[in-house]
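Protein in question quoted in full.
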Amino acid sequence: MSVHESGEMYLEAILVLTQEKGSVRSIDVSEYLGYSKPSVSRAMGILRAEGYITTDKDGTITMTDRGRELAESIYERHTLLTRVLAALGVSQETAAADACKIEHVISDESIRAIKRHVEGKL
């Protein structure tokens, strides 16, 4: 399951918006991420072609099992890294922003080690 960082960000946004709103359209993703509608439309086309999402005739975006699995993994990384950085004294805003950058490049091995280390401590 390989997707570029930008694709991961889109999938994570779709996951968060789905949890908040129930249904998501491209305009919601555009507003959430602050990206232009054409950029989001292009990204949705790529994610659809790669089997991460589907869209219905009304434009509602639904993640496939494959897309949801990847989005949940990225979101888990984000929340774990945010918690760790905040526990170290980083402001919540900075911790979340930094976690967003780190979550896309950190290895699975490092995430597993961090998770093992903090379980029960935070």
